[in-house]
Amino acid sequence: MYSDRQPAGVQRPWRLGILAALFTSSCSACGPADAVDSAEGIFRWTISTVVEIDAPPARVWRVLVDLPAYREWNPFIVEATGMVAAGERLSLRMALPGREPMSIAPRLLVVEPERELRWKGRLVLPGLFDGEHAFVLTPLADGRTRLDHWERFAGVLLPIAKGMIYDATVQSFHALNAALAERAVSR
Questions:
Q1: pLDDT tens-digit profile of 164-178?
Q2: Which architecture, in CATH terms, is 42-186?
């Protein structure tokens, strides 16, 4: 008769192997191949977008850090308040297409004027659904700016959440990028 019980201290290597496979496998069925780094696995994924803006980094930065004005132009982060300084918490209302806005209170990790704005937020507890969101500005020729806008997600809820929010989040990133570019050019 088979028993799952083993003497104390005896490892079950096949169980560890299954866990290791879950934590390190890629999820090719979760989205486009260029949107998921195969080394990330099903409990980590990244959305990354790039846009070139016909405005200098200083102007793009002013639009990014003018949090009260987000409600006027930002289709994704529809409300934002807080002090823009590393270590501070922001209060953000994010709206994915076709969904009710949700509030998050991320902590600012990096605030480098005219270069990078980055925060990290989480859903309820660390490790469930965490997101590190960044706007990285690079000066280009002729007073233009390259914006690298990305978010790294991690957590045990990602395999479930990805199918529900991935496409809408990518769409929202592109909409934010276009609106930011339009706002920066018009200022």
A1: 899 999 999 999 999
A2: 2-Layer Sandwich (3.30)
